[in-house]
From TrEMBL:
<dbReference type="Pfam" id="PF07992">
    <property type="entry name" value="Pyr_redox_2"/>
</dbReference>
<dbReference type="GO" id="GO:0003954">
    <property type="term" value="F:NADH dehydrogenase activity"/>
</dbReference>
<dbReference type="InterPro" id="IPR045024">
    <property type="entry name" value="NDH-2"/>
</dbReference>
<keyword id="KW-0560">Oxidoreductase</keyword>
<dbReference type="InterPro" id="IPR023753">
    <property type="entry name" value="FAD/NAD-binding_dom"/>
</dbReference>
<feature type="domain" description="FAD/NAD(P)-binding">
    <location>
        <begin position="11"/>
        <end position="92"/>
    </location>
</feature>
<keyword id="KW-0274">FAD</keyword>
<keyword id="KW-0520">NAD</keyword>
<comment type="similarity">
    <text>Belongs to the NADH dehydrogenase family.</text>
</comment>
<dbReference type="InterPro" id="IPR036188">
    <property type="entry name" value="FAD/NAD-bd_sf"/>
</dbReference>
<protein>
    <submittedName>
        <fullName>FAD-dependent oxidoreductase</fullName>
    </submittedName>
</protein>
<keyword id="KW-0285">Flavoprotein</keyword>
């Protein structure tokens, strides 16, 4: 049964029934925009477009992708961008640059973003800050939350 509303006291389901809960954790996952289905380009199981190193969409001349719709390699070690601001923002910069370069007939730049961090904020319980794709814990407790927000 689909969840249709978040309530202060739990969730409401499609049939109108409610499940009471003090804490609701969303684990439904994410999916790329349905616009990605309009091209013939290859997509991953999340609907993200396969792209070349410069974020040009595979099989679609002069089309570039960035952000949640993009399956982009972040480094030479097999890591790919997450559907997250951390990657969407940088990809946007590269894609914008490369669209302009393409229009002007100049060389495009390969997208690279090897530095990766995660920050899990647990509210009053503190936070965890990790670095690297193996998520090496660098900070825990109340301080990471303050440092990352600052
Ligand atoms: C609830 C939630 C919490 C999140 N929390 C975090 C977080 O803590 N940290 C983190 O790193 N990431 C977080 N994310 C993920 C992050 O928001 C996305 O990865 C990021 O915003 C992707 O950027 P984007 O530019 O690809 O897409 P978006 O930011 O979604 O921008 C796409 C834009 O295109 C517009 N649009 C869509 N379809 C059309 C159309 N057909 N025509 C015209 N305009 C259209 C949309 O209205 C939107 O403005 C969260 C996402 C959600 C949903």
């Amino acid at each position: 049964m689909k969840v249709t509303r978040l309530l202060g006291s739990g969730v409401e389901l499609a049939d109108g029934s409610r499940i009471a809960a003090g804490t609701v954790i969303w684990t439904g996952g994410m999916r790329a925009s349905a616009l990605t289905e309009q091209g013939s380009g290859q997509r991953d199981p999340l609907g993200r477009l396969h792209v070349a190193l410069d974020l040009s969409v595979t099989g679609a001349a002069h089309v570039y992708a960035a952000g949640d719709v993009t399956l982009a390699a972040t480094d030479d070690h097999g890591n790919h961008a997450m559907m997250a601001c951390q990657h969407a923002i940088d990809m946007g910069r590269y894609a914008g640059h490369n669209v302009a370069a393409d229009l002007l007939g100049l060389p495009t730049m390969p997208y690279q973003q090897p530095f990766y961090v995660t920050c899990l904020d647990l509210g009053g319980a503190g936070a965890v800050y990790t670095e690297g794709w193996h998520r090496e814990v660098k900070l825990t407790g109340a301080d990471p939350a303050r440092s990352v927000v600052a």
